[in-house]
Design brief:
This protein is of the alpha+beta class and about 250 residues long. It has helices at about 1-15, 90-135, 160-170, 205-210, and strands at about 40-45, 50-55, 85, 145, 150-155, 155, 175-180, 185, 215-225, 225-235, 245-250. Helices cover about 30% and strands about 20% of the residues.
Length: about 250
């Protein structure tokens, strides 16, 4: 009896084996309930996929492509196989690629909408800046700075031109500023206390483009008293001299 019992134990032990990792994988996960994966074998390293196809072609199938997602090649509850497809991308990856393309398309459309909104605003800013420049430039004489620091254009005191900039703001809805060099001399913009924002310098990029380069320049990052503005800068020259700008307006 002892020999028979020992033989039974040895037989059980020899019959036992470790479970292979592949046996823990259920290849049918995601193949129903609108899942987009498939149970096809993939080899080597994802280069080739053999995908069962059973979502159309028989009344035995519960679901077809019109009833499910069009991207689903295999439905777990269907019984009739139409065939197999070779070299098919995982449907989940395909869905992600399609979603990415739609997202990129949406971004492009969104950027076009933004451009469509910014373009008229840029034209308005430019028009207001040029009008402000013309309003100052119509005065006879040259731009100069007096001993007390005021900036004049002939007999017109720019440093006291509050009425001009306030009128332009009232009519255009935009703040305007006159710079002599890089310093803010007159502006319609006010701080939280209602005081005009004067004396602060223009940014390095603005100086480089407008004062050093003599170019008109649009910026979407004009900071005044902690508030960010859009701004269009136009260089201001002495009459008859298009060499170096003496200042700028925006």
């Amino acid at each position: 009896m002892r020999s028979l019992a020992l033989l039974a134990v040895l037989t059980l032990c020899l019959g036992a084996r470790a479970q292979e990792p592949a046996e823990c994988v259920d290849p049918f996960i995601g193949t129903t309930n609108f899942g987009t994966t498939n149970p096809g074998a993939v080899t080597p390293h994802g280069m080739m996929s053999v995908v069962p196809f059973n979502v159309m072609g028989s009344e035995e199938n519960v679901y077809d492509k019109d009833a499910r997602w069009w991207s689903t090649p295999y439905e777990y509850h269907n019984k009739f196989f139409t065939g197999f497809v070779f070299g098919r991308l995982s449907e989940l990856i395909k869905e992600l690629l399609e979603w990415t393309n739609k997202a990129l398309f949406g971004i492009v459309i969104g950027m076009n909408v933004i451009k469509g909104l910014i373009s008229p605003m840029l034209d308005s800013l430019k028009g207001t800046a040029i009008a402000t420049q013309a309003a100052y430039d119509q005065n006879a004489g040259t731009y100069l700075q007096t001993e007390n620091g005021d900036i004049w254009k002939g007999s017109y005191n720019i440093s006291q031109s509050e009425n001009l900039v306030d009128t332009i703001k009232q009519e255009s809805g935009m703040d305007v500023t006159f710079f002599y060099g890089s310093q803010r001399i007159m502006t319609s913009a006010v701080d939280k206390n209602g005081d005009r924002i004067l004396g602060s310098p223009a940014g390095d990029k603005v100086v480089e483009k407008v004062l050093n380069g003599g170019e008109e320049y649009f910026s979407d990052n004009v900071s005044m008293d902690g508030t960010i503005y859009y701004g269009y800068y136009v260089p201001v020259y002495q009459k008859g001299d298009s060499g170096t700008p003496i200042g700028m307006v925006f």
